[in-house]
Amino acid sequence: MSARSTRHPFTNALYVQQPDGNVAITDGDKQGLFRPDGRWISGALREADPQMCVWVAAQVAATPLSDSRTATALKAQKPA
Fold first, then answer.
1. N or C: which end of the chain has fewer CB within 10 A?
2. Number of helices (H) and strands (E), helices first, in the chain?
3. How far is CA 33 from CA 26, 70, 75, in A?
4. This prediction's pTM
5. Are 36 and 22 a contacting pair, CB within 8 Å?
6. Is the pLDDT of residue 79 over 90?
7. What is the DSSP string of 19-39?
8. What is the spatial distance between Cα 62 and Cα 68, in angstroms, rounded to a whole number?
9. Distance of alpha carbon 27 from alpha carbon 15, whole angstroms
10. CB neighbours of 51 closer than 8 A, spacing ≥ 6?
11. Residue of higher predicted confidence among 68 and 36
């Protein structure tokens, strides 16, 4: 699983998916760790946008389209 991340459109806080499924958020000099539903676990940052946490923490299933794009991109990178 590759980590997903995005910035909040209003606060510019960085939301990053963690390997255990939780979400780490950095907002300026404050950081916090949150559950996928937005509940606080630890850190100085104690508030999160629950919808952003749900989106970042979501498991993305591989689809034939995404697999085919990945295969095409990998083939393009290999020297002939």
1. C
2. 2, 5
3. 9, 31, 38
4. 0.73
5. yes
6. no
7. TTS-EEEEETTEEEEE-TTS-
8. 10
9. 9
10. 38
11. 36
- Residue for token digits 């590759």? 2
Confidence check: pLDDT of 70 > 80: no
Give the C-alpha distances (Å, rounded to integers) separating 25 from 28, 35, 66, 69, 79. 10, 11, 27, 30, 39
**In this structure, which amino acid lies at residue 55?**
W
Does the CA dihedral 58-61-65-69 come out positive or negative? positive
Contacts of 58 by beta carbon, 8 Å cutoff, 6+ apart: 4, 36
Beta-bridge partner residues of 27 = 30
Residue corresponding to tokens 């255990």: 20
Place of tokens 């780490």: 24
Give CA–CA dist 48/25, Å, rounded: 8
The kind and range of the H/E element at 69 are helix 64-77
